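User: Teach me something about this protein's shape.
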Amino acid sequence: MVKPTLVRDFKDKKISLISAGAHHSVIMTQQGDVYVCGNNKDGQLGLGDCEARNSFTYLRSLADKNVYRLFCGGNHTWALIDEFMPMRVRPRVPSPLYQEIEEIKKVEALPKQVEPKPDVKKNK
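Assistant: First, the predicted structure itself:
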């Protein structure tokens, strides 16, 4: 039996749509930002490659599109675009996911390396 896993990435985001295929998932926030995760051997994540993603990745190709439905099949994903208003008004880069914030905190917590000052000899 598979144990459910809490996805903390979206703890500060409101979700409007979720769809799952055989081995991939797609989520859309209320802001219209679309994120994908999972197997990608057939390019079903829409990221332009066939590399699997173990964590949710922002789908930039839909950043300016007004998506109103998402569907996943076994190895494919459909995003339906509003035919009357296909472009989003003022698309912007979404706020980072929880995992990205945690990575930033780790990097910021690393000690800073101080460069030694070069020896400067005074001319007498």
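Now, about its shape. The mean pLDDT is 83. Residues 9-109 form one domain. If you'd like, I can walk through any region in more detail.
User: That's plenty for now, thanks!
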